[in-house]
Design goal:
heterodimer, A: 153 residues, mainly alpha, B: 134 residues, alpha/beta, 5-stranded parallel β-sheet, 5 helices, 7 strands, 21% strand, globular, cytokinin signaling pathway (chain A), nucleus (chain A)
Chain lengths: 153, 134
């Protein structure tokens, strides 16, 4: 099996695992279908925007929840709502699902519940970021080796 | 459908669209969807910017309007644009699914509403409504 075939096999396996383990849903596949020769880096670009957005929002939530004087749960909820929106748009279903629970804790003004969700969302986001970065690295390697990215189903 | 081009005062046969969303990820995706359909597009980050761009004289065939935005939300922006006499197709695009929330948005003056995430098939269905009315 030559290098390109091996890399392509790894790409397919990684991609399938991301979907099978519930990290990504069909929305990510829809984004892959939007990528073409006019916009060859679209998925990487959107993922980068998502990572940037996540980090900003997680920092906002963390600062708001650290307030000893009293947590502004509306402010926390606003950030969670934003994160839910971005994660849904990119297909990051695990992150999105935590945001749903997170919003309930915000509505209940439950600081402990919010802190647990913040921890979970930070963990899930980190996992997803690592896995996507691995996928994108494989893409680059395939292209550098003269191969093509296996088609999106 | 002829429309005022992005540079103002210039008629174009290409459809034009304005994306109104405060989220950078959503803006990128919506703009890409529009690019893929060869629809000229611009984006702004909240309802006030959407109103301001129309006050500057620009018009669009289609406005994709998010609901929850800072400064001016989608409901207020839609109402304001209709009060200004803007007759563009305004499609609300939001994560909200509660009937009451969506109804208020629709009653503000929407022509269509799609739940996020916006996909190509949802966008095409919005555009078919424009062409059906054109």
């Amino acid at each position: 099996m030559d290098v390109v075939n091996q890399l392509q096999r790894q790409f397919i396996d990684n991609s399938a695992s991301l979907h099978r383990e519930g990290f990504l849903d069909d929305q990510f596949t829809q984004l892959q279908k939007l990528q073409d020769e006019n916009s060859p880096d679209f998925v990487v670009e959107v993922a980068s925007l998502f990572f940037e957005d996540c980090e900003k929002l997680i920092n906002n939530m963390s600062r708001a929840l650290e307030q000893q004087q009293g947590v502004d749960f509306k402010q926390v909820d606003a950030s969670v709502h934003q994160l839910k929106g971005s994660s849904s748009s990119i297909g990051a279903v695990r992150v999105k699902n935590i945001c749903v629970a997170f919003r309930s804790f915000c509505e209940a003004q439950n600081r402990e519940g919010c802190l647990r969700c913040l921890q979970q969302v930070t963990h899930e986001y980190s996992l997803l970021k690592n896995k996507l970065q691995t996928l994108f690295r494989l893409e680059k390697q395939i292209l550098a080796a003269g191969g093509s990215i296996p088609g999106v189903e | 459908m002829a429309a005022q081009g992005r540079h103002g005062g210039r008629k174009s046969n290409k459809m034009t669209a304005l994306v109104v969303d405060d989220n950078i990820v959503n803006r990128a995706i919506h703009l890409r969807l529009l690019d893929n359909l060869s629809i000229e597009n611009e984006a702004v980050g909240n309802g006030k910017e959407a109103v301001d761009i129309h006050c500057s004289g620009k018009t669009f065939d289609l406005i994709l309007m998010d609901m929850d935005m800072p400064i001016m939300n989608g409901i207020e922006a839609t109402r304001k644009l209709r009060e200004m006499g803007i007759r563009s197709m305004i499609a609300g695009v939001s994560t909200r699914s509660m009937e009451q929330d969506v109804r208020e948005f629709i009653e503000a003056g929407l022509d269509d509403y799609q739940e996020k995430p916006l996909t190509m098939s949802k966008l095409i269905s919005i555009i078919h409504k424009i062409n059906g009315n054109g």
